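Annex B. Sample input.
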Amino acid sequence: MTLEELPRWARELLARERVARLAFLDDRDRPRVLPVTYAVVGGSVWSAIDEKPKQPREPARVRYLRRRPHAALCVDRYSDDWSRLAWVQLLGRIEIVGVAEGAAALDALAARYEPYRERTPPGPLLRLSVERSLSWRATG
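Annex B, continued. Sample output.
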């Protein structure tokens, strides 16, 4: 199932939730998971690398994804009322894109997240081309 084939409730969950978890393998093939901001644009899911004051070099996630571009993105809704639980998992390949090439995605990210309106992320951008999607919810 692709991004476009997700049930309506799952697409709405992607539009409504504010944070996703990006999973990938590091340089030793160990799993890593990071919370990320994201926006769905043109059938792909985009995330930006924002400023990292403690690291002057390329962030580790970018190096890892250059080496092995397969990733999973999970967006979920948790509630103590377990009848409201839901999640969407998107599996695919990450492409590392310069800010100039991903202008529409950067605009969408800025529309979703006020800090990006105040300070444009230097990038790069990560574009997840969804090859497979999974979804689940507790009811309906």
